[in-house]
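Objective 1b of the project was to move from sequence-level analysis to a structural picture of ligand recognition. The entry below was assembled by the postdoctoral researcher (A.K.) and checked by the PI before modelling. It contains the amino acid sequence of the target and the SMILES of the bound compound, pyridoxal-5'-phosphate.
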Amino acid sequence: MTGTPVRSAIDAYTETFVEDPGYLDWAAFGPVSPAARAALDADAALLASGRPEDIAAAGRQGTAARQELAVLLDADADEVTLHPSSTHALQQAFAGLDGAVVASSAEFPSVTITLARAAEAAAGRLVPRWIAPADSRVTADAAADALDPAVVALVVSHVDFRSGYRADLPALRELLGPDRLLIVDAVQSFGVVDEDWSVADVVVGHGYKWLRAGRGTGFARFTAQARERIRPVLSGRIATSAAGLPVDALAGPAASGQAYAVSAPDQLAAGRSAAAVAEVRRTGVPEIAAALARNVDAVLETADRHGVPVVSPRDPAERAGIVVLAPADPAGLGAALAEAGVRATVRAGHVRVAPHAGTTAETLGMLEGALAGAAEFIAP
Ligand SMILES: Cc1ncc(COP(=O)(O)O)c(C=O)c1O
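Corresponding predicted holo structure:
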């Protein structure tokens, strides 16, 4: 039988990538998706009318976002909280912890600075246990030496922003055992890596890179074990056990994960988040991960063809969407890429190239062309 070919969900998803050609900087910022933009417009209209039912409808986006995130996390929506950023979510986790927390000193500052500040405020109750693993790879072996009875938790980026290394969460879970907390920053992987998040006690992330939802879309999941160990110190007015506004009495924190919230979420951010995550759910994370892997392979092949050293992992199990190039002259290559309209991040001697599942052949071709014309910056 002949006829119109059936458009798969992943094809429909990749067709929504309408950013400028040449965009290969998804690890820094994800151009906002048409679905998130449409949600923003619709919610802004609701908030502009002054009608109580419209304001209430926009207010329901917080619940919608938590429900959508819960599906991807395979969690209960009550365990998911919304935050202005993933750093705010990490603040919630660290502020209420007592004991030693293992972290790599090379982590993104959302981990290092937030943990250090929480420890300073804790006056000895919370102590960072810094490790310095080779190539910033927080492997179970690298973390094992830091464990002793004082350690109550390990915090790790699932995918390291600098090296591109994807940590083996089940191995870290096994190392920690059932009693210590595994706290995961999933900023560089959530929605594009098919992961069993249930191995972690706390997962934090945000929507402004790989989810394409824009800023203000931080979130966290706190399991029952996390809620037993982490006091809801920064718990605010919407995070109490009271039904409705807790006035004239000091209600205690909510019994659920909602205890780690502060105030009502930004409806516009929550609406963008709900729309973007729903699109990922409908498409399927395994399908998105496979499409991303193909584009990462294409970037690696292009780099190899032009002799650009690659220092990020090549093994699909150890990577997500970040390819790190180490040319002889990173600033020179970065400028050549920019000149050719290719967007990437140049930092600390490397050029970070990050495609997404919807990165087009045109964009990959622009990278090819730019590298072909930049031999002087590639070889020593
Ligand atoms: C691993 C990681 N965590 C956290 C952040 C910052 O997140 P936020 O701006 O939501 O605090 C980034 C930003 O690049 C990141 O790469």
